[in-house]
Design brief:
Blueprint (H helix, E strand, L loop, with lengths): L3 H56 L5 H18 L7 H18 L5 H13 L12 H7 L5 H14 L3 H9 L31
Helix pairs in contact: 1-2, 1-3, 2-4
């Protein structure tokens, strides 16, 4: 028999279930709202670095190469933070697609999805050391960033610093596999500082 006590227990369980469902909906609503607020904050912060960069370009400020690289590094950092530190998160790529449309409309192709991904990779590569390259331009880094092997990448960075290579000269060195032709490759190649005068490049095969 289904008595009064059973009806009471059933009604109580239904109320508990309804409460839990509504709580989940509310929590989910809050988390989405918080996420949206975080996105807006990161977007605004990234845009502030873009504005700084564009002002320098328009005013032709000299010796601003380091500041340009610093801005790109900061943009990359903010993108990684906005996607909760996971560089491969699908959410991160969706953010990049979304933001790139707004940035390109306002500031041009320099902030399209491809370049935002480059900024992110630039930060991830130089996360510990900070932006590199008092003597290297962003044009150089466009060809250095895709090099996955750290020693190889550092070799070409050092080569650019020591020999003051142009973009075309760097491309020529990469295509000629000068790193692969090194004799007795060091186990670890560190990026040299501009003040250092000694060479870490080693000998190459003919």
């Amino acid at each position: 028999m289904f008595g009064l006590a059973d009806s009471y227990r059933l009604a109580r369980q239904i109320l508990i279930n309804l409460f839990l469902i509504n709580k989940n909906i509310y929590d989910n609503f809050l988390s989405k709202g918080e996420l949206h607020m975080q996105e807006k904050e990161y977007f605004s912060e990234i845009e502030s670095f873009i504005k700084k960069n564009e002002i320098r370009k328009k005013e032709h400020i000299l010796e601003s190469n380091y500041e340009t690289l610093r801005n790109y590094w900061e943009i990359g950092r903010l993108i990684v933070e906005a996607q909760n530190g996971n560089s491969k998160a699908k959410y991160g790529d969706e953010l990049i697609k979304k933001w790139s449309k707004e940035f390109t409309n306002k500031y041009g192709k320099g902030y399209d999805a491809t370049n935002l991904k480059r900024f992110r990779q630039y930060y991830l590569i130089f996360q510990k050391s900070g932006p590199v390259g008092h003597q290297l331009s962003w044009t150089h880094f466009r060809y250095l960033i895709p090099i996955k092997n750290e020693n190889k990448r550092n070799y070409y960075i050092n080569l650019c610093i020591e020999k003051k290579l142009s973009k075309n000269e760097l491309i020529k060195e990469i295509k000629s596999n000068s790193y692969e032709r090194l004799l007795n490759k060091p186990k670890q190649i560190e990026i040299i500082q501009p003040r250092n005068n000694y060479s870490l490049l080693g000998q190459t095969k003919n």
